[in-house]
Amino acid sequence: MELDAAVPALPVRSVVAAQAFYVEALGFTANWHHAEGRIGAVSHGRCALFLREVDGPFTPGVVWIFAEDVDAAHAAMVAAKPTALQNMPYGLRQFTVTDPDGNQLHIHHDL
After folding, report:
1. pLDDT of residue 34
2. Where are the domains of the chain?
3. Residue 41 and residue 49: Cα distance in Å, rounded?
4. Strand-by-strand arrangement of the 92-98 sheet
5. Per-residue pLDDT reduced to its tens digit, 5-57
């Protein structure tokens, strides 16, 4: 048996607003939005994320996303105000983007 990539569902206040951020600031593609089901999806290359609309308080999600060229990804996502690129002691070169709903995307590559 072999499994494929997982698709996390991140909590958001508005799927439409979240998709706009992911498209405009991060270069993702908005794939679909099911308004009645309050869920949508975005993707970038082989990375796919579900965006799940929630009411009331929620805990933002954390996702680790591998990038073949983390430096180019950082440069492409400058509109999202990413953290500085860092070589971490645990063997990753990474930066973090936080979406308007507080979800954190740690974009990384192995050192």
Report:
1. 98
2. 9-110
3. 6
4. 62-66, 104-110, 92-98, 86-87
5. 899 999 999 999 999 999 999 999 999 999 999 999 999 999 999 999 999 99
Q: What is the mean pLDDT of residues 54-82?
A: 97
Read off the tokens for 31: 């794939």
Which one-letter DSSP state was computed for residue 107? E
The rounded percent of the chain whose pLDDT value lies above 70 is 100
Structure confidence at residue 6 (pLDDT): 92
The CATH homologous superfamily for domain 9-110 is: 2,3-Dihydroxybiphenyl 1,2-Dioxygenase, domain 1 (3.10.180.10)
Instruction: Give the full edge-to-edge strand order of the sheet including 29-34.
Output: 9-12, 47-53, 39-44, 29-34
CA dist 109 and 97 (Å) reads 15
- Per DSSP (E only), the strands in the chain are 9-12, 29-34, 39-44, 47-53, 62-66, 86-87, 92-98, 104-110
DSSP, res 80: G
